[in-house]
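pinned: reference chain
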Amino acid sequence: MIFATATGALFSRLSWGAWWNWDPRQTTIFVLILIYGAYLTLRSAVPEHRGRALVSAVYSLFSFLTVPFLVFLLPRLYFSLHPEPLLNSGAHVAMEPLMLGVLALGLVDATLLYFALLFRSVKED
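pinned: its structure tokens
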């Protein structure tokens, strides 16, 4: 999530001229990072194993309730600098060739990484 936010800041700088714009999507991801950071802090604050597991589970259940609002609802209620989806907008992909090439390269990289980790895991067992 932090890597996605950092690369999103780079994209923001290249596209809109600023590293951070307090766009609804950027802001809600920032809030989710804070929630996740609080979870990690809570886990490290409770020394006893059973107590840590119980408190972490309860916190996780309540914090998960914020996800639909922060990821799906709030970013769509307000104006966003982010463009509309390009891939699911119809039968024709309205994407620049360079963007489509980068997307395809990223898809190939992620797939190769997945299989490398999968084979490594199977080989160790």
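why pinned: Residues 3 and 9 are 10 Å apart (CA to CA). The radius of gyration is 19 Å.
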